[in-house]
Specification:
Layout (H helix, E strand, L loop, with lengths): L1 H9 L9 H17 L6 H15 L3 H17 L3 H11 L2 H16 L6 H14 L3 H15 L1
Helix pairs in contact: 2-3, 2-4, 2-5, 2-6, 3-4, 3-6, 6-7, 6-8
């Protein structure tokens, strides 16, 4: 599965045949990428990634952690963010992409510090996912409220 998704993300092949498991791994890798955007992959961010994955995909903490670990490897190997976001955009309806942005904001806010690299990454990612600025701001507010 990892090799198939990596070849899809690395190549020019269309992502229309992305199965839900691949989309789940792409989202997990995107969560890891945003957490690493400020070059400080904090334990609080890792915990939130695991929590988001467990909740979103109704899985145990152990399975969420294993998915995150696999996503860390994929994120290391994947060439760019555009392919991740294209995979998610093609596989996920707009309403759910707003919740993806909320999950990304939750990771960004997990360590208690908003960094300009993370903010810039979120603006780019929201745009690439086709989520407008208003919906991204609302997603950030919802994420902040969940963390308080």
């Amino acid at each position: 599965m990892f090799d198939k998704l990596l070849s899809l993300l690395s190549g020019d092949a269309p992502l229309d045949d992305l199965d839900p498991t691949d989309a789940r791994l792409a989202l997990a890798a995107l969560l890891v990428r945003v957490a690493r955007a400020d070059y400080d992959y904090a334990a609080s961010e890792i915990a939130v990634i695991d929590q988001v994955l467990a909740h979103r995909y109704n899985m145990s903490a152990e399975k969420a952690s294993a998915l995150r670990t696999e996503a860390e490897e994929l994120e290391d190997a994947a060439p760019d963010t555009v392919r991740f976001t294209r995979a998610i955009k093609n596989a996920v309806p707009y309403e759910d992409r707003r919740s993806v942005i909320q999950a990304l904001w939750k990771v960004v806010l997990a360590d208690g510090a908003r960094d300009h690299e993370e903010d810039g990454f979120l603006r780019l990612t929201a745009n690439l996912l086709g989520v407008n600025d208003r919906d991204s701001a609302l997603a950030r507010q919802r994420a902040q409220a969940q963390l308080e």
